[in-house]
């Protein structure tokens, strides 16, 4: 799938992958490549690493002292008394010390003598209350928000000879953790004085077919062309005609041509081979490559796919060559692509949240005109949610946790979806217009006296890259924070 074209901004936040379980993994691969590219711009500073004894169940029916170790990183190198406190809530991935050494949060830390802190999200990285999938009922955004609030409210932070406990914080996140940053401001406004929500899909939507449309729209904007987008649509439609034909020999021949003969579920196969370009759209073409060439260029620069005279079979042959090369470059395996029938933590933690809370299922859009394979539909993802987990029993109620359909209504009711801008103040929402996830955010709204909304031509979580520091939109974001911080109350009591 490409759910992810997950979210991974990683702060916590995927490329695209064949199914829910692999979305996060492929997103991590693209993010690691992206991190490697920008590593030269990272500073070398000492970072404090530690763990916090966190409550396992904040909503237990009976009080309990049970805790787990939750990892954190702190950059206290620039803090001076009176400086702001910046908190990066973890998202759907493991933390790294570089999270407090890059991008706009780091720039703000240096400029304003701030304390910069991040805490890993429960059930990701090294911060799991349990590694048994039956305990995934303890993974929810509600539990995570309580984790973050308790940590920032009770932990004694050290910065030189200074001890910092409590105080007013700026919550700063991107992608899913951008949601969390805004929701911390919503739920605990006395603890979180302001927030920054980058590329935040605050609208929980089960069937996110708009992602398909966004990728098609973006192809001409990132170095491709409309002809290339149309050529891909025709190629994928031709592929679907074979996969849906019921002709086992033809289907095996096609899978073999792509080097994926052993992928048993044709939906996994179709999902993977028709969604590769989503990484170039979500993260930007400079971070997604086939060999030494940008993936968008390999697909679209005077290729068979863009040709108006090429036959469907010729286009499909060319597509197979590209996907095989991409798979080799990304070290993709059959196991990696195939739907998972046994959950693992933390590999499938995001899949659990998608199946139970957020949806974000990137299906082919309705109708006959869609970029993704028509096999990528609601039934496909619901199948993954159904087979991906053993029976999970809620320890509070004793009842089985349903995960066939995500409870997006509950999430949108509690956290207000795109209506959140009417209920909070001092939240800066930032979106790249090319980023497909912006379609679940507030980018179409206007700034107000309560909040700032900044859009720019760009991609997912762009402000977490140090490469963008001199761009005009980054300057605009920095100016908002300069103004807000200049008028902020003392961070500490």
UniProtKB/TrEMBL annotation:
UniProt entry keywords in alphabetical sequence: Glycoprotein, Hydrolase, Protease, Signal
Extract the signal peptide range. 1-18
Q: Which GO terms describe its molecular function?
A: dipeptidyl-peptidase activity; serine-type exopeptidase activity
Q: Which InterPro entries match?
A: AB_hydrolase_fold, Peptidase_S28, Ser_carbopepase_S28_SKS
Q: Name one GO biological process term.
A: proteolysis
Tell me which PANTHER family the record gives: PROTEASE S28 PRO-X CARBOXYPEPTIDASE-RELATED (PTHR11010), SERINE PROTEASE 16 (PTHR11010:SF117)
Similarity-based family: Belongs to the peptidase S28 family.
Name of the molecule in the record = Peptidase S28
Tell me the classification of the organism that encodes this protein.
Answer: Eukaryota, Fungi, Fungi incertae sedis, Chytridiomycota, Chytridiomycota incertae sedis
């Amino acid at each position: 799938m490409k759910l992810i074209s997950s979210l991974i901004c990683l702060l916590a936040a995927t490329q695209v992958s064949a199914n829910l379980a692999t979305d996060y993994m492929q997103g991590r691969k693209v993010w690691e490549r992206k991190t490697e590219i920008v590593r030269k711009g990272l500073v070398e500073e000492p970072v404090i690493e530690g763990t916090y004894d966190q409550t396992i169940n904040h909503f237990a029916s009976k009080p309990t002292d049970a805790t787990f170790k939750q990892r954190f990183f702190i950059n206290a190198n620039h803090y001076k008394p009176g400086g702001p406190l910046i908190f990066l809530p973890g998202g759907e991935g493991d933390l790294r010390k570089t999270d407090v050494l890059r991008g706009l949060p780091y720039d703000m830390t240096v400029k304003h003598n701030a304390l910069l802190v991040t805490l890993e999200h429960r059930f990701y990285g090294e911060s799991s209350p349990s590694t048994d999938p039956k305990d995934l009922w303890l993974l929810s955004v509600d539990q995570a928000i309580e984790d973050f609030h308790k940590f920032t409210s009770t932990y004694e932070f050290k910065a030189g000879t200074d001890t910092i406990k409590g105080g007013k914080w700026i919550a700063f996140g991107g992608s899913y953790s951008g949601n969390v940053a805004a929701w911390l401001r919503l739920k605990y406004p006395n603890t979180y004085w302001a927030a920054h929500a980058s590329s935040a899909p605050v609208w929980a939507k089960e069937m996110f077919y708009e992602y398909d449309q966004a990728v098609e729209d973006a192809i001409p904007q990132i170095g491709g062309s409309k002809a290339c987008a149309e050529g891909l649509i025709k190629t994928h439609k031709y592929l679907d005609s074979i996969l849906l034909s019921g002709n086992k020999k033809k289907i095996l021949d096609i899978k073999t041509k792509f080097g994926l003969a052993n992928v048993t579920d044709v939906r996994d196969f179709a999902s993977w081979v028709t969604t590769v370009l989503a990484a170039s759209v979500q993260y930007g073409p400079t971070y997604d490559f086939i060999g030494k060439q940008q993936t968008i260029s390999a697909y679209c620069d005077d290729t068979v796919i863009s040709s108006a005279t090429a036959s469907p079979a010729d286009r499909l042959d060319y597509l197979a060559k590209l996907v095989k090369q991409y798979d080799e470059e990304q070290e993709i395996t059959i196991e990696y692509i195939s739907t998972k029938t046994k959950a693992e933590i933390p590999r499938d933690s995001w899949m659990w949240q998608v199946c139970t809370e957020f949806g974000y299922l990137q299906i082919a859009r309705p109708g006959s005109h869609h970029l993704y394979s028509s096999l990528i539909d609601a039934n496909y993802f619901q199948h993954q949610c159904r087979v991906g987990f053993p029976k999970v029993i809620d320890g509070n109620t004793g009842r089985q946790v349903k995960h066939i359909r995500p409870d997006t209504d509950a999430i949108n009711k509690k956290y207000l979806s795109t209506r959140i801008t009417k209920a909070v103040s001092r939240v800066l929402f930032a979106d790249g217009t090319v980023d497909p996830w912006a379609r679940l955010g507030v980018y179409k709204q206007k700034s107000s006296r309560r909040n700032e909304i900044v859009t720019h031509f760009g991609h997912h979580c762009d402000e977490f890259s140090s490469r963008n520091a001199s761009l005009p939109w980054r300057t605009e974001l920095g100016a908002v924070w300069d103004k807000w911080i200049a008028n902020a109350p003392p961070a500490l009591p």
